[in-house]
Amino acid sequence: MNVQATVVVGQRGEWLIAAFQNTKTHPLMAAIGIKIDSRQAPSTLPGREVPAN
Questions:
Q1: Is 12 helix (H, G, I), strand (E, B) or coil?
Q2: What is this structure's pTM?
């Protein structure tokens, strides 16, 4: 599983990529992180499915 983050900025009517990061994750470490810090839990935004534990 990978997590990708891209930061874009608007400048003079154009969008420019300011930063990019692609990080490999491990499912076990992700599960541990969620148990330790709930801010790392999957999104609960409408239209997004949250996997059952």
A1: coil
A2: 0.42
